[in-house]
Structure prediction request, 386 residues.
Amino acid sequence: MRRTGVHNFPAIDRVIYGKAASEALNEEAERLNAKRVFLLASRTLNTKTDEIEKIRRTLGDKHVATFDGIAQHTTRKQAAEVAHQAKDARADLIVAVGGGSAVDLAKIVIMAMEHDIRDEAGFDPFPMSPGVNYSPFRSPTVRQIAVPSTLNGGEYNAAALVTDERNKLKQIFFHPQMMPVAIILDPSLTLHTPSKLWMGSGTRSMDHGIEALCSPAGTPLADEVVLAGIRILREAMLRTLDYPGDLEARRLAQHGSWLASFGLQARIPMGASHGIGHVLGGTFGVPHYYCTPVIMPSLLRYNKPFTEDAQKRLATVLGAPGIEAADAFAEFTNKLGLPGRLADVGIGEHKFDQISKIAINHRFVQANPRPFKSEADIVDLLRAAA
Prediction:
């Protein structure tokens, strides 16, 4: 039982649900007195649906530009380029409509705008290395709103994952006001999300909850909220697997993601699933929504001696009380049709040494509930997940 600790509350005004995204966004723009709204939109939503056009029509002359060429893994270079476009447009509000990459891009774009960063080297004076517990950024003048189309949950977080392409290294940048000023949940937007992305992103949101639950820095409030979120997510994801057009199930899944990501809102450090996942994505190009199903079962087994009580509670909300949480999670992701081993996502043993050399210095790997004493311990974990 945790007897001491601190619970942080996020710099977010509100989460809006039960309204169409276009209507809710226009109301938020008016509330914030925003006159020049710059959209960062999923290309699929922008070119193959009318969802972004609905938003533009409702915003009317408040809309100044739309950018839809978002890279799967947010990069420093693209952040600087988009920030330059947004400044040229004199944007006073950035809105991300899409998945985790759109949301991360919006977060780092507002910081690049604030500091007039014009290229990838412009981020060098803002180190966010292991052990840095404060933000080197100024508070942004321009804020952002997130309208998620996946279940990732990264929108409930005041940090962004950004890849430095010069050395293929995914980095974390943080400021409390990188948290969206508002989040808008519209399940109808998610009808266009590919099934594998929907399911995989849901496991990523579960990952946020599991790592908060297992963290020594967790709080009683976060524990209860993330457990509820994981339970709701599991039930809703299985419903959308069988009935993809079920808007009520999609609404519940969004609410589950919101709750499961509560540890992010409270700034509870994530663990090695996130840290290793960042290396798999930033250095080896594995989609983030596949990282959790291939790493989490083996990590739960590794962490069990330090997190046994948490894992018992986890197994219960995964619908499998009495069995190992690692097995319950693996069975669930297998039902969803997601990859279950590193080999399934193109990561063979010849890459393990390089992964471990990068991961051992990652702040989340260092925050894992069961410490890794050396790179060899990480290699052993990767072999268990192979």
Notes: The mean pLDDT is 94. The first strand starts at residue 14 and ends at 17.
